[in-house]
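Standup notes, protein team

Yesterday: finished cleaning the Telmatospirillum siberiense set.
Today: Alpha/beta hydrolase structure.
Blockers: none.

Input for Alpha/beta hydrolase:
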Amino acid sequence: MKSGQKSLFDRHTAWQRFKLRYFGAKPWSGPGQVGPDQAPPALPNATFFHAGGKAAVLLIHGLTGTPTEMRFLGKTLAEAGFTVYGCQLAGHCGTEEDLVRTHWPDWYASVEQAYAEVRKKHDIVFVAGLSMGSLLSMHLAANHPGEIKGLGLLSTTLRYDGWAIPRLSFLLPLFLHTPLGLRYRFVENYPYGIKDDRLRQRVVANMTSGNSAEAGNLGMTGHSLRQLLSLVELVKREMPAIDTPAMIIHASNDDVCSIWNARYIESHLGGTRELLLLDDSYHMVTVDKQRKEVGRALASFFAARTDPQALVRDHVTAS
């Protein structure tokens, strides 16, 4: 190899190393595709229901996610005697174009609608959410003071600062306020929030095959991220006034959002709170290696705030 060629090769590999260190493997993959202004198609219905006792739990999935990521938790809570409802957020379980058509108030409207239906049947209601679903849970509690008996805040995402997030992610809010940033498509990085190798392979296979109703979307446009950040700022302002008891569950080694997020909630919520840190999970704590521990802890937390008679199964059926 000639010296000039070697120098060029060295410069190229150095640049690749720089990109991986500061921008990640695939922080974005090009312009997002925004569909035409037309009525969105019908999305798959991935909601679920488990009959149980008089006390109910509403479960809320995360951004680009699906109710499927809450199903195991739902079964665990149902086995503990709760009636469980898994809701589906607007624009989710379809394509990225479906998601782009929605804004955070649309996602929250899905939660309000689901909560209203649950309240028709149950006087005792708990709410738990994963990642952005945790934010929506807190916003729901802020809008219904004194009604919700307890919150489960799982892997709450206030900022993307986990170890798998690109080093320059702190510039994301500025980038999203540009026309280019709004249309760029951001793609998840390895390990995709899952420490369990076998489960990760199955989830990634579903995402890459387009099975979003089962595994969610692999990426999202800047539009959706900007909506998330707007919701974060609102919920931060609401936290001191939220006096609903809360259990905060977070992985110590979360690859998406660091333990800082859990500590922030712990110090800013207005009500009583408990913090559980997991040592063998990543971001998706409801499906990862310690999913059973998450379910047991949340069931215990909710049960302690429930009349034992309310956990007696009464064969509630879906309307």
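Follow-up from PR in the comments: DSSP finds twelve helices and nine strands in the chain.
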